[in-house]
Amino acid sequence: MPNLDSLLSFPLDDAGPSRSASERTPIPPASSHIVVTDTIDAPAFFVLVHFLRASHAANKSARQVDIKGKSRAKDVKVVWIGCSGDGVVHLKHVARKSGIQIDSETQRGAFAYIDAASIALSTSVVQTGQEELIDVDNATRPHPILGQLYTQVERELVRETSEEASWSSETLVIIDDLSALSWSLDHTDVFGRPVDVARQICTWTKALNSLVTKHRASLVTLLHADASSIGKHEASDSVEESVLRSLLRTADVWIEVKELGSGRARDCDGEITVHPLVRPSLAHSLKTTPRDPSAASHFPPLQAFAVETPCPSRSKAVLYRIAPDGQSAATAGVGAGTSTSRVQVWARGTGRGFL
Fold first, then answer.
1. In this predicted model, what pLDDT tens digit does every residue of 256-285 receive, in sequence order?
2. Domains recognised in the chain with CATH numbers
3. N or C: which end of the chain has fewer CB within 10 A?
4. Which residues contact 293 (CB under 8 A, 6 or more apart)?
5. In this structure, are residues 271 and 258 in contact, taking their beta carbons and an 8 Å threshold?
């Protein structure tokens, strides 16, 4: 039965449409930006857990190779930015259902959790009137919460890079989720003047994307799209719509998760559409003609990633189902599709017998 690994895989060395599973990896290429959107009826938390499981599997395989006395690659590190307020305890519970011990991964240096919700509560944004008067264009001023998050991510990314050049990412920075982060920011200053939250979020995301590019890492961003132009309620939230448009202009792959148009189904939790986009982020970060041609050979090519799906067309959505193996117990009462150890995917029209 095809699972999420067959849907979200990337080439190891080049962007060619490789057909061999051994020549593909679930780890995103370095400098890539993966945008994930979901809805209330079809949460995409399982996609973030998929990348966490992928890094854990890669590290476990590397440790087994090291035991045999062969050379070993550096562990793929995950930097998880939790913005929803659930905390690391919730993530530990979900990860344990997938066979991942967060505490052990943290001790090995393969995992780091940044609690954005706690930072938002502890950060003081009260400023003196004199400072506010000096800052005429307060709408464009960086928010203290975003500044602290950037600093903490930068601290986690500072480590020795692998001697062997790798096309895959050495670190995955996962934002869970960007919508909750925007809600935690003040939409007005102390004088009651409006603050352009969407602009601050977009600027911070672009800066974070540039940061991960320098450290041979990749960025995975989750955004709730219920109130955007792709949701049921269309563009009812200006901040959400602006952030979505900005992300899609700079992203490399867009993973769209949403509920079925016909409503809930017993054997299906929703549908996933993978949109391979062009490489605008890398085009902005790399020079057209580098002085040293060999220096740019380790970066992904300036073209769309070869993301293969079991569908005849990449623009066609595939259906997904969270395998009934007890994973829903991790988020009892929250809803289907919020955590996973295995996600089954299949094309439309294949029928329930394909399960």
1. 999 887 766 777 889 998 887 766 555 555
2. 4-354 (3.40.50.300)
3. N
4. none
5. yes
